[in-house]
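This entry is retained here.
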Amino acid sequence: MSTAELARARDPDRREKILRAAGEQFARRGYHAVSLAEIGAAAGIVGSGVYRHFTSKSAILVALLDQVMGRLIDEAGQILATEPAGARQLEALIRGQVAFAIDDSYLVRLWQREVHVLPEADRRRLRRLQRLYVEEWVHLLAELRPGLGDGQARALVHAAIGAIQSVASYNSGLPRKQQADLLDRAAWACLDCGLAS
């Protein structure tokens, strides 16, 4: 067994530790201010060990943002496949987005602040994934409010998601449940469905 294989066998979660450490560092200090050595140190490995998993700092950021969009799209797919149609599906999407914004606020900050530093092809691909995710919300909102035009539905969905994700940019000091309830109500108010839970 090679040294690299031995290291991976000892700690199979090393790649995820690198991603988490990098995401937290990027979100806190900014992509350009963080070195691979600092990412390695935060993940508990030497900086050169990062290269066993990623070819560059940019590759780490791409992997992080791919992971974010993959997770949101997978969760949306699961909701649409298992929840009763209409308001229940939209309610579950809102709950999922609220949990993501509160529990992984550093990933929201990372997306908002750093997606622009990616190579153009990665940026375009991630924006396409983002549009697919938003499209699920738009489709459900259009079913609940059939009089809405497409542009109106998109604007309201972006407002709702923006309201939820605003929590990533400050610390309210509120208990998690109270914060989640407020964000849930804010999202429904943006969507203007009269269905706030």
Q: What stands out?
A: The domain at 57-191 is CATH 1.10.357.10 (Tetracycline Repressor; domain 2). The radius of gyration is 19 Å.
